Amino acid sequence: MQTPRTPKPRPLYDIIILGASGFTGKYVVKEALKFINTPSSPLKTLAIAGRSHEKLVKALQWAAHPSSPPPDVSIIIADTTDPSSLLSLCTQTRVLLNCVGPFRIHGEPVVAACASSGCDYLDISGEPEFMERMEAKYHENAIQTGSLVVSACGFDSIPAEMGVMFNSRQWVAPAVPNYIDAYVSLESDKRIVGNFATYESAVLGVANMDKLQELRRSRPKRPRPVIRGPHPPKGPMIEYQEKIGLRAIKLPSADAVVVRRTLVTLIENPHGLPGINESAEHTERRKAFWSTVKPAYFGVKIGSKSLSGIYRIIGVGIFIGLLSRTSFGRWLLLKFPSFFSFGWFRKSGPSEDEVRSASFKMWFVGHGFSDSSLASETNSKPDMQIITRVMGPEIGYVTTPIVLLQCALILLSQRENLPKGGVFTPGIVFGPDLQQRLQDNGISFDLISKSALPA
Ligand SMILES: NC(=O)c1ccc[n+]([C@@H]2O[C@H](COP(=O)([O-])OP(=O)(O)OC[C@H]3O[C@@H](n4cnc5c(N)ncnc54)[C@H](OP(=O)(O)O)[C@@H]3O)[C@@H](O)[C@H]2O)c1
Asked: Which residues form the Saccharopine dehydrogenase NADP binding domain (predicted)?
Protein backbone atom coordinates (compact mmCIF):
# COMPACT_ATOMS: atom_id res chain seq x y z
CA MET A 1 0.00 0.00 0.00
CA GLN A 2 1.27 3.47 -0.89
CA THR A 3 1.79 5.87 1.98
CA PRO A 4 -0.09 9.09 1.23
CA ARG A 5 2.33 11.98 0.54
CA THR A 6 2.14 14.67 3.15
CA PRO A 7 2.15 18.13 1.55
CA LYS A 8 5.26 20.21 2.23
CA PRO A 9 4.55 22.65 5.07
CA ARG A 10 4.62 26.29 3.96
CA PRO A 11 8.02 27.71 4.88
CA LEU A 12 8.20 30.26 7.66
CA TYR A 13 9.75 32.97 5.49
CA ASP A 14 9.13 34.26 1.98
CA ILE A 15 12.74 35.40 1.66
CA ILE A 16 15.96 34.79 3.57
CA ILE A 17 18.90 37.03 2.64
CA LEU A 18 22.15 35.15 3.22
CA GLY A 19 25.25 37.34 3.60
CA ALA A 20 23.09 40.20 4.86
CA SER A 21 25.98 41.65 6.87
CA GLY A 22 28.09 42.14 3.73
CA PHE A 23 28.56 45.38 1.86
CA THR A 24 26.01 44.46 -0.80
CA GLY A 25 23.92 42.33 1.57
CA LYS A 26 23.00 45.29 3.77
CA TYR A 27 21.84 47.30 0.73
CA VAL A 28 19.76 44.25 -0.32
CA VAL A 29 18.15 44.24 3.14
CA LYS A 30 17.42 47.98 2.76
CA GLU A 31 15.71 47.31 -0.57
CA ALA A 32 13.75 44.34 0.83
CA LEU A 33 12.43 46.44 3.73
CA LYS A 34 10.69 48.70 1.16
CA PHE A 35 8.49 45.79 0.15
CA ILE A 36 7.78 44.03 3.40
CA ASN A 37 4.17 44.20 4.40
CA THR A 38 3.20 46.87 1.91
CA PRO A 39 -0.35 45.95 0.86
CA SER A 40 0.26 44.76 -2.72
CA SER A 41 3.62 43.12 -2.02
CA PRO A 42 3.93 39.32 -1.91
CA LEU A 43 6.79 39.71 0.58
CA LYS A 44 5.25 39.20 3.99
CA THR A 45 7.96 37.47 6.00
CA LEU A 46 11.69 38.12 5.90
CA ALA A 47 14.77 36.79 7.66
CA ILE A 48 18.43 37.67 7.33
CA ALA A 49 21.22 35.16 7.76
CA GLY A 50 24.97 35.08 8.19
CA ARG A 51 27.83 34.09 10.47
CA SER A 52 27.70 36.81 13.08
CA HIS A 53 24.60 37.77 15.04
CA GLU A 54 26.17 41.06 16.03
CA LYS A 55 27.00 42.05 12.46
CA LEU A 56 23.52 41.06 11.29
CA VAL A 57 21.88 43.21 13.96
CA LYS A 58 24.04 46.17 12.88
CA ALA A 59 23.22 45.58 9.20
CA LEU A 60 19.50 45.50 9.97
CA GLN A 61 19.73 48.69 12.02
CA TRP A 62 21.63 50.41 9.19
CA ALA A 63 19.16 49.18 6.57
CA ALA A 64 16.11 50.29 8.56
CA HIS A 65 17.55 53.74 9.41
CA PRO A 66 16.04 56.27 10.19
CA SER A 67 13.27 53.92 11.44
CA SER A 68 13.91 51.20 13.99
CA PRO A 69 14.34 47.71 12.57
CA PRO A 70 10.98 45.99 12.08
CA PRO A 71 10.55 43.57 14.98
CA ASP A 72 9.42 40.74 12.75
CA VAL A 73 12.64 40.39 10.70
CA SER A 74 14.34 37.29 12.09
CA ILE A 75 18.06 36.73 12.37
CA ILE A 76 19.42 33.27 11.62
CA ILE A 77 22.97 32.02 12.01
CA ALA A 78 24.29 30.11 9.00
CA ASP A 79 27.71 29.44 7.56
CA THR A 80 28.50 28.23 4.06
CA THR A 81 31.05 25.83 5.55
CA ASP A 82 28.28 24.17 7.59
CA PRO A 83 25.90 22.30 5.21
CA SER A 84 23.37 21.55 7.96
CA SER A 85 22.94 25.27 8.66
CA LEU A 86 22.26 25.81 4.93
CA LEU A 87 19.74 22.97 4.75
CA SER A 88 18.01 24.44 7.74
CA LEU A 89 17.74 27.81 5.91
CA CYS A 90 16.27 26.03 2.90
CA THR A 91 13.53 24.37 4.91
CA GLN A 92 12.55 27.74 6.35
CA THR A 93 12.20 29.82 3.20
CA ARG A 94 10.56 29.97 -0.21
CA VAL A 95 13.42 31.96 -1.75
CA LEU A 96 17.04 32.26 -0.67
CA LEU A 97 18.90 35.38 -1.83
CA ASN A 98 22.61 34.66 -1.72
CA CYS A 99 24.94 37.64 -1.29
CA VAL A 100 27.99 35.67 -0.07
CA GLY A 101 30.86 35.98 -2.54
CA PRO A 102 33.23 35.41 -4.19
CA PHE A 103 30.86 32.71 -5.39
CA ARG A 104 33.63 30.44 -6.64
CA ILE A 105 34.69 30.15 -2.98
CA HIS A 106 31.41 30.22 -1.09
CA GLY A 107 28.60 29.60 -3.59
CA GLU A 108 28.45 25.88 -4.31
CA PRO A 109 27.31 24.59 -0.89
CA VAL A 110 24.42 27.07 -0.98
CA VAL A 111 23.31 25.98 -4.47
CA ALA A 112 23.70 22.32 -3.42
CA ALA A 113 21.49 22.83 -0.37
CA CYS A 114 18.78 24.61 -2.40
CA ALA A 115 18.88 22.12 -5.27
CA SER A 116 18.57 19.17 -2.90
CA SER A 117 15.80 20.67 -0.79
CA GLY A 118 13.67 22.30 -3.52
CA CYS A 119 13.99 25.85 -2.27
CA ASP A 120 14.37 28.62 -4.89
CA TYR A 121 17.73 30.35 -5.13
CA LEU A 122 18.83 33.70 -6.57
CA ASP A 123 22.26 35.28 -6.39
CA ILE A 124 24.27 38.28 -7.56
CA SER A 125 27.23 36.38 -8.95
CA GLY A 126 29.05 37.77 -11.95
CA GLU A 127 31.36 34.76 -12.23
CA PRO A 128 30.79 32.69 -15.41
CA GLU A 129 32.72 29.65 -14.23
CA PHE A 130 30.66 29.38 -11.04
CA MET A 131 27.40 29.77 -12.95
CA GLU A 132 28.24 27.25 -15.62
CA ARG A 133 29.60 24.74 -13.10
CA MET A 134 26.41 25.01 -11.05
CA GLU A 135 24.37 24.37 -14.18
CA ALA A 136 26.49 21.34 -15.06
CA LYS A 137 26.31 19.86 -11.56
CA TYR A 138 22.87 20.76 -10.20
CA HIS A 139 20.46 21.31 -13.12
CA GLU A 140 19.00 17.78 -13.10
CA ASN A 141 18.71 17.67 -9.33
CA ALA A 142 17.04 21.09 -9.26
CA ILE A 143 14.50 19.99 -11.91
CA GLN A 144 13.57 17.00 -9.79
CA THR A 145 13.20 18.83 -6.49
CA GLY A 146 11.54 21.90 -8.04
CA SER A 147 14.25 24.36 -7.11
CA LEU A 148 14.74 27.32 -9.45
CA VAL A 149 18.40 28.31 -9.31
CA VAL A 150 19.15 31.63 -11.01
CA SER A 151 22.51 33.38 -10.77
CA ALA A 152 23.51 36.79 -12.16
CA CYS A 153 20.47 38.62 -10.77
CA GLY A 154 22.48 41.81 -10.15
CA PHE A 155 24.01 44.50 -12.36
CA ASP A 156 25.77 41.44 -13.73
CA SER A 157 23.80 40.60 -15.86
CA ILE A 158 20.22 41.88 -15.76
CA PRO A 159 20.68 45.29 -17.47
CA ALA A 160 22.57 43.48 -20.25
CA GLU A 161 19.99 40.70 -20.56
CA MET A 162 16.97 42.97 -20.48
CA GLY A 163 18.76 45.65 -22.53
CA VAL A 164 19.70 43.34 -25.36
CA MET A 165 16.15 41.95 -25.47
CA PHE A 166 14.74 45.47 -25.48
CA ASN A 167 16.97 46.41 -28.42
CA SER A 168 16.25 43.21 -30.31
CA ARG A 169 12.50 43.73 -29.89
CA GLN A 170 12.72 47.11 -31.65
CA TRP A 171 13.57 45.31 -34.90
CA VAL A 172 10.13 44.92 -36.37
CA ALA A 173 9.76 42.38 -39.21
CA PRO A 174 11.00 42.31 -41.88
CA ALA A 175 13.94 44.03 -40.09
CA VAL A 176 16.38 41.80 -38.15
CA PRO A 177 19.32 42.64 -35.89
CA ASN A 178 22.75 41.25 -36.70
CA TYR A 179 24.91 42.46 -33.81
CA ILE A 180 24.28 44.53 -30.71
CA ASP A 181 27.13 46.15 -28.80
CA ALA A 182 26.54 47.44 -25.30
CA TYR A 183 28.56 50.42 -24.01
CA VAL A 184 28.59 50.82 -20.23
CA SER A 185 29.25 54.28 -18.89
CA LEU A 186 29.63 54.82 -15.13
CA GLU A 187 28.98 58.37 -14.00
CA SER A 188 29.36 60.32 -10.79
CA ASP A 189 30.38 63.73 -9.51
CA LYS A 190 32.30 61.90 -6.76
CA ARG A 191 34.70 58.96 -7.06
CA ILE A 192 33.40 55.73 -8.59
CA VAL A 193 34.30 52.98 -6.13
CA GLY A 194 33.47 49.29 -5.72
CA ASN A 195 33.91 47.02 -2.72
CA PHE A 196 36.83 44.62 -2.44
CA ALA A 197 34.83 41.36 -2.93
CA THR A 198 33.89 42.34 -6.49
CA TYR A 199 37.54 43.00 -7.31
CA GLU A 200 38.55 39.72 -5.62
CA SER A 201 35.93 37.86 -7.69
CA ALA A 202 37.36 39.42 -10.88
CA VAL A 203 40.98 38.60 -9.95
CA LEU A 204 40.10 34.98 -9.14
CA GLY A 205 38.04 34.72 -12.33
CA VAL A 206 40.97 35.82 -14.51
CA ALA A 207 43.35 33.55 -12.58
CA ASN A 208 41.12 30.54 -13.31
CA MET A 209 40.26 31.18 -16.95
CA ASP A 210 41.70 27.81 -17.98
CA LYS A 211 39.28 26.01 -15.61
CA LEU A 212 36.35 27.67 -17.37
CA GLN A 213 37.67 26.54 -20.77
CA GLU A 214 38.19 23.02 -19.42
CA LEU A 215 34.63 22.95 -18.05
CA ARG A 216 33.21 24.10 -21.39
CA ARG A 217 35.19 21.46 -23.29
CA SER A 218 33.84 18.74 -20.98
CA ARG A 219 30.19 19.64 -21.61
CA PRO A 220 27.93 18.48 -24.43
CA LYS A 221 27.63 20.97 -27.29
CA ARG A 222 24.32 22.85 -27.38
CA PRO A 223 22.76 24.34 -30.52
CA ARG A 224 23.98 27.81 -31.45
CA PRO A 225 21.55 30.67 -31.93
CA VAL A 226 20.84 31.26 -35.61
CA ILE A 227 21.85 34.86 -36.30
CA ARG A 228 21.05 36.51 -39.62
CA GLY A 229 24.01 37.96 -41.54
CA PRO A 230 27.80 37.88 -41.20
CA HIS A 231 29.97 37.93 -38.07
CA PRO A 232 30.42 41.49 -36.80
CA PRO A 233 33.62 43.29 -37.82
CA LYS A 234 36.43 43.12 -35.28
CA GLY A 235 37.00 46.88 -35.06
CA PRO A 236 39.84 48.73 -33.33
CA MET A 237 40.88 47.95 -29.73
CA ILE A 238 39.81 51.43 -28.63
CA GLU A 239 36.66 52.45 -30.42
CA TYR A 240 35.15 55.90 -30.64
CA GLN A 241 31.34 55.73 -30.70
CA GLU A 242 30.46 59.10 -32.11
CA LYS A 243 26.68 58.89 -31.58
CA ILE A 244 27.04 58.41 -27.84
CA GLY A 245 30.26 60.37 -27.41
CA LEU A 246 32.24 57.58 -25.77
CA ARG A 247 35.56 55.91 -26.31
CA ALA A 248 35.26 52.25 -25.43
CA ILE A 249 37.17 49.05 -24.92
CA LYS A 250 36.00 45.44 -24.58
CA LEU A 251 34.82 44.57 -21.06
CA PRO A 252 35.37 40.92 -20.17
CA SER A 253 32.31 40.85 -17.90
CA ALA A 254 29.90 37.94 -17.48
CA ASP A 255 27.20 39.74 -19.46
CA ALA A 256 27.89 38.38 -22.95
CA VAL A 257 28.21 34.84 -21.61
CA VAL A 258 24.92 35.06 -19.70
CA VAL A 259 23.07 36.57 -22.69
CA ARG A 260 24.44 33.81 -24.88
CA ARG A 261 23.23 31.12 -22.46
CA THR A 262 19.77 32.71 -22.53
CA LEU A 263 19.75 32.66 -26.34
CA VAL A 264 20.84 29.01 -26.36
CA THR A 265 18.01 28.06 -23.98
CA LEU A 266 15.67 30.00 -26.25
CA ILE A 267 16.74 27.89 -29.25
CA GLU A 268 15.78 24.79 -27.28
CA ASN A 269 12.54 26.41 -26.05
CA PRO A 270 11.44 28.89 -28.74
CA HIS A 271 8.44 30.04 -26.68
CA GLY A 272 10.43 30.41 -23.45
CA LEU A 273 10.08 28.10 -20.45
CA PRO A 274 6.55 26.98 -19.61
CA GLY A 275 5.37 27.40 -16.04
CA ILE A 276 4.47 24.56 -13.67
CA ASN A 277 0.83 25.48 -13.61
CA GLU A 278 0.74 28.47 -15.85
CA SER A 279 -2.32 30.64 -16.39
CA ALA A 280 -3.59 30.84 -19.98
CA GLU A 281 -3.02 34.59 -19.90
CA HIS A 282 0.63 34.13 -18.89
CA THR A 283 1.19 31.46 -21.55
CA GLU A 284 -0.06 33.88 -24.17
CA ARG A 285 2.09 36.73 -22.82
CA ARG A 286 5.18 34.52 -22.62
CA LYS A 287 4.79 33.29 -26.18
CA ALA A 288 4.11 36.79 -27.50
CA PHE A 289 7.18 38.13 -25.69
CA TRP A 290 9.63 35.50 -26.92
CA SER A 291 8.32 35.66 -30.48
CA THR A 292 9.62 39.26 -30.64
CA VAL A 293 13.12 38.53 -29.28
CA LYS A 294 15.55 38.01 -32.15
CA PRO A 295 19.04 36.61 -31.60
CA ALA A 296 22.05 38.80 -32.39
CA TYR A 297 25.77 38.71 -31.76
CA PHE A 298 26.42 40.54 -28.51
CA GLY A 299 29.43 42.12 -26.84
CA VAL A 300 29.99 44.56 -24.00
CA LYS A 301 32.40 47.49 -23.88
CA ILE A 302 33.22 49.89 -21.11
CA GLY A 303 33.11 53.49 -22.19
CA SER A 304 34.71 56.69 -21.04
CA LYS A 305 34.40 60.26 -22.27
CA SER A 306 38.17 60.70 -22.07
CA LEU A 307 41.11 58.80 -23.51
CA SER A 308 42.84 58.96 -20.10
CA GLY A 309 39.84 57.09 -18.62
CA ILE A 310 40.35 54.34 -21.21
CA TYR A 311 44.09 54.16 -20.45
CA ARG A 312 43.28 53.66 -16.75
CA ILE A 313 40.94 50.78 -17.62
CA ILE A 314 43.63 49.22 -19.81
CA GLY A 315 46.14 49.67 -16.97
CA VAL A 316 43.92 47.79 -14.49
CA GLY A 317 43.35 45.07 -17.10
CA ILE A 318 47.10 44.66 -17.60
CA PHE A 319 47.79 44.51 -13.85
CA ILE A 320 45.08 41.87 -13.27
CA GLY A 321 45.90 39.94 -16.46
CA LEU A 322 49.61 39.66 -15.64
CA LEU A 323 49.67 39.43 -11.87
CA SER A 324 46.73 37.06 -11.36
CA ARG A 325 48.69 34.24 -13.02
CA THR A 326 50.99 33.60 -10.04
CA SER A 327 50.17 33.22 -6.37
CA PHE A 328 52.55 36.04 -5.43
CA GLY A 329 50.96 38.27 -8.07
CA ARG A 330 47.48 37.45 -6.72
CA TRP A 331 48.69 38.20 -3.19
CA LEU A 332 49.91 41.62 -4.36
CA LEU A 333 46.67 42.36 -6.22
CA LEU A 334 44.52 41.39 -3.25
CA LYS A 335 46.74 43.10 -0.67
CA PHE A 336 46.74 46.45 -2.48
CA PRO A 337 43.40 46.66 -4.33
CA SER A 338 43.28 50.43 -4.38
CA PHE A 339 46.76 50.76 -5.89
CA PHE A 340 46.27 48.15 -8.62
CA SER A 341 42.79 49.39 -9.54
CA PHE A 342 43.76 53.11 -9.53
CA GLY A 343 41.33 53.68 -6.66
CA TRP A 344 38.31 51.97 -8.21
CA PHE A 345 38.14 49.27 -5.51
CA ARG A 346 38.60 49.71 -1.76
CA LYS A 347 38.63 47.27 1.14
CA SER A 348 36.18 49.58 2.92
CA GLY A 349 33.92 49.97 -0.15
CA PRO A 350 32.36 53.25 -1.30
CA SER A 351 30.95 55.78 1.15
CA GLU A 352 27.18 56.31 1.25
CA ASP A 353 27.71 59.61 -0.55
CA GLU A 354 29.72 57.93 -3.30
CA VAL A 355 26.96 55.33 -3.73
CA ARG A 356 24.28 58.02 -3.82
CA SER A 357 26.10 60.12 -6.42
CA ALA A 358 26.80 57.36 -8.90
CA SER A 359 24.71 56.19 -11.84
CA PHE A 360 25.07 54.21 -15.03
CA LYS A 361 24.05 54.37 -18.64
CA MET A 362 24.22 51.30 -20.82
CA TRP A 363 23.83 52.06 -24.51
CA PHE A 364 22.87 49.30 -26.91
CA VAL A 365 23.94 50.00 -30.46
CA GLY A 366 22.27 47.46 -32.72
CA HIS A 367 23.23 46.88 -36.34
CA GLY A 368 21.04 44.88 -38.66
CA PHE A 369 19.06 44.67 -41.86
CA SER A 370 15.96 46.62 -42.80
CA ASP A 371 14.84 43.43 -44.56
CA SER A 372 15.92 40.00 -43.42
CA SER A 373 16.36 38.87 -47.05
CA LEU A 374 19.33 41.29 -47.32
CA ALA A 375 21.15 39.33 -44.60
CA SER A 376 21.66 36.28 -46.81
CA GLU A 377 23.13 38.19 -49.78
CA THR A 378 26.87 37.69 -50.42
CA ASN A 379 29.02 40.36 -48.76
CA SER A 380 25.93 41.67 -47.01
CA LYS A 381 26.45 44.61 -44.65
CA PRO A 382 23.96 45.94 -42.08
CA ASP A 383 21.98 48.85 -43.45
CA MET A 384 20.15 49.88 -40.30
CA GLN A 385 21.04 50.96 -36.77
CA ILE A 386 18.88 51.03 -33.64
CA ILE A 387 20.21 52.64 -30.46
CA THR A 388 18.53 51.99 -27.12
CA ARG A 389 19.59 52.79 -23.58
CA VAL A 390 19.16 51.35 -20.10
CA MET A 391 19.83 53.83 -17.33
CA GLY A 392 19.77 53.62 -13.57
CA PRO A 393 21.40 54.42 -10.23
CA GLU A 394 24.76 53.19 -8.89
CA ILE A 395 25.45 49.69 -10.21
CA GLY A 396 26.69 47.52 -7.33
CA TYR A 397 24.72 48.62 -4.29
CA VAL A 398 21.60 50.30 -5.65
CA THR A 399 20.82 48.76 -9.04
CA THR A 400 21.91 45.28 -7.93
CA PRO A 401 19.55 45.21 -4.89
CA ILE A 402 16.71 46.65 -7.03
CA VAL A 403 17.01 43.97 -9.71
CA LEU A 404 17.59 41.14 -7.22
CA LEU A 405 14.48 42.10 -5.24
CA GLN A 406 12.36 42.44 -8.37
CA CYS A 407 13.39 38.93 -9.47
CA ALA A 408 12.50 37.65 -5.99
CA LEU A 409 9.12 39.39 -6.06
CA ILE A 410 8.33 37.78 -9.43
CA LEU A 411 9.20 34.41 -7.89
CA LEU A 412 6.93 35.06 -4.92
CA SER A 413 3.98 36.38 -6.90
CA GLN A 414 4.16 34.23 -10.03
CA ARG A 415 5.69 30.93 -9.00
CA GLU A 416 3.05 28.91 -10.86
CA ASN A 417 3.88 30.75 -14.08
CA LEU A 418 7.58 29.83 -13.85
CA PRO A 419 9.34 26.54 -14.58
CA LYS A 420 9.23 23.88 -11.87
CA GLY A 421 12.98 23.87 -11.36
CA GLY A 422 16.43 23.86 -12.90
CA VAL A 423 19.50 26.07 -13.19
CA PHE A 424 18.82 28.94 -15.58
CA THR A 425 19.88 32.45 -16.54
CA PRO A 426 17.69 35.35 -15.35
CA GLY A 427 16.67 36.46 -18.85
CA ILE A 428 14.97 33.21 -19.77
CA VAL A 429 13.14 32.93 -16.44
CA PHE A 430 12.13 36.54 -15.76
CA GLY A 431 12.28 38.04 -19.30
CA PRO A 432 8.57 38.58 -19.95
CA ASP A 433 7.88 40.23 -16.57
CA LEU A 434 11.02 42.02 -15.47
CA GLN A 435 11.39 45.11 -17.65
CA GLN A 436 8.16 46.75 -16.48
CA ARG A 437 9.08 46.07 -12.86
CA LEU A 438 12.53 47.61 -13.34
CA GLN A 439 10.98 50.67 -14.97
CA ASP A 440 8.64 51.04 -12.01
CA ASN A 441 11.66 50.94 -9.71
CA GLY A 442 14.01 53.51 -11.21
CA ILE A 443 15.69 51.72 -14.12
CA SER A 444 14.66 53.14 -17.47
CA PHE A 445 14.60 51.65 -20.96
CA ASP A 446 14.56 54.10 -23.87
CA LEU A 447 14.56 53.92 -27.62
CA ILE A 448 17.06 56.58 -28.70
CA SER A 449 17.14 56.32 -32.49
CA LYS A 450 16.40 54.20 -35.53
CA SER A 451 18.36 55.14 -38.63
CA ALA A 452 19.52 53.93 -42.01
CA LEU A 453 23.24 53.30 -42.40
CA PRO A 454 25.14 54.60 -45.42
CA ALA A 455 25.75 51.86 -48.02
N1 LIG B 1 26.23 41.27 -9.76
C2 LIG B 1 26.69 42.41 -9.36
O3 LIG B 1 26.64 43.36 -10.07
C4 LIG B 1 27.28 42.50 -7.96
C5 LIG B 1 27.19 43.68 -7.25
C6 LIG B 1 27.71 43.73 -5.97
C7 LIG B 1 28.34 42.60 -5.45
N8 LIG B 1 28.42 41.47 -6.18
C9 LIG B 1 29.07 40.27 -5.66
O10 LIG B 1 28.53 39.96 -4.39
C11 LIG B 1 29.52 39.31 -3.60
C12 LIG B 1 29.57 39.97 -2.24
O13 LIG B 1 30.14 41.25 -2.35
P14 LIG B 1 30.26 42.23 -1.10
O15 LIG B 1 30.99 43.42 -1.57
O16 LIG B 1 28.94 42.40 -0.46
O17 LIG B 1 31.19 41.35 -0.15
P18 LIG B 1 31.43 41.45 1.43
O19 LIG B 1 31.17 42.82 1.93
O20 LIG B 1 32.75 40.86 1.69
O21 LIG B 1 30.30 40.50 2.04
C22 LIG B 1 30.41 39.13 2.04
C23 LIG B 1 29.31 38.55 2.91
O24 LIG B 1 29.49 37.13 2.91
C25 LIG B 1 29.52 36.68 4.24
N26 LIG B 1 30.31 35.47 4.37
C27 LIG B 1 31.62 35.28 4.07
N28 LIG B 1 31.98 34.01 4.32
C29 LIG B 1 30.87 33.38 4.77
C30 LIG B 1 30.59 32.06 5.21
N31 LIG B 1 31.54 31.12 5.24
N32 LIG B 1 29.33 31.76 5.59
C33 LIG B 1 28.35 32.70 5.58
N34 LIG B 1 28.57 33.97 5.20
C35 LIG B 1 29.80 34.30 4.80
C36 LIG B 1 30.12 37.82 5.03
O37 LIG B 1 29.79 37.62 6.39
P38 LIG B 1 30.59 38.33 7.60
O39 LIG B 1 29.96 39.68 7.71
O40 LIG B 1 30.32 37.45 8.73
O41 LIG B 1 32.03 38.41 7.18
C42 LIG B 1 29.41 38.98 4.37
O43 LIG B 1 28.10 39.08 4.88
C44 LIG B 1 30.82 39.37 -4.40
O45 LIG B 1 31.02 38.15 -5.04
C46 LIG B 1 30.56 40.46 -5.43
O47 LIG B 1 31.29 40.27 -6.61
C48 LIG B 1 27.89 41.40 -7.43
From this structure: 15-150
